[in-house]
Specification:
- This protein is 63% helix and 0% strand.
- The protein is mainly α and 153 residues long.
- Helix 4 runs antiparallel to helix 5.
- It starts with a helix and ends with a helix.
């Protein structure tokens, strides 16, 4: 006889199952509902801090750069550029001359936005730049002469 055969098993009815008793849960405190004022207050404080920061940067930047002379300075710079340009031919026209014409056009256009007396200068420099894009050098020279005469007047 083997040891497994010699072992008697207890009948299933002899060991009744006991229900499991779980410990009671600790009492819960009621959860505090967040008030809508706190997020609103935080948003307002963040907005105020952001506005203060942007305003500070703006004021600081304007204090560091100083005041601009306005349209007269822009027109004077455009005139300096236009006076420094040579009479263009197919042999001496380069891309940098076109960029100088563009810069003179932008400066004179900025001046013309504020003061109407620079309108003809702005038109002449713009037409000179557009003609240089088309490589119409006769028109460029004519518009440059008009711009120089506007600078003198």
């Amino acid at each position: 006889m083997t040891s497994l055969e010699a072992t008697e098993l207890a009948p299933a009815d002899s060991m009744p199952l006991q229900p499991i008793e779980w410990p009671a849960a600790p009492p819960q405190r009621p959860l505090k509902q967040p008030t809508p004022r706190r997020p609103l207050l935080a948003a307002l404080i963040g907005l105020a801090c952001g506005a203060f920061l942007v305003g500070g940067v703006w004021v600081g930047g304007s204090l560091l750069t100083g005041t601009s002379d306005g349209p007269a300075k822009d027109a004077a710079e455009a005139c300096t550029i236009v006076r420094g340009l040579p009479a263009f031919t197919t042999e001496n026209f380069v891309q940098s001359d076109g960029s100088r014409l563009y810069r003179a056009g932008e400066l004179s256009a900025a001046a013309a936005q504020t003061e109407a007396r620079y309108q003809r200068l702005a038109e002449a420099t713009r037409q000179a730049y557009l003609s240089s894009s088309d490589l119409d050098l006769d028109a460029v020279n004519q518009q440059v002469r008009i711009a120089v005469s506007e600078c003198a007047g």
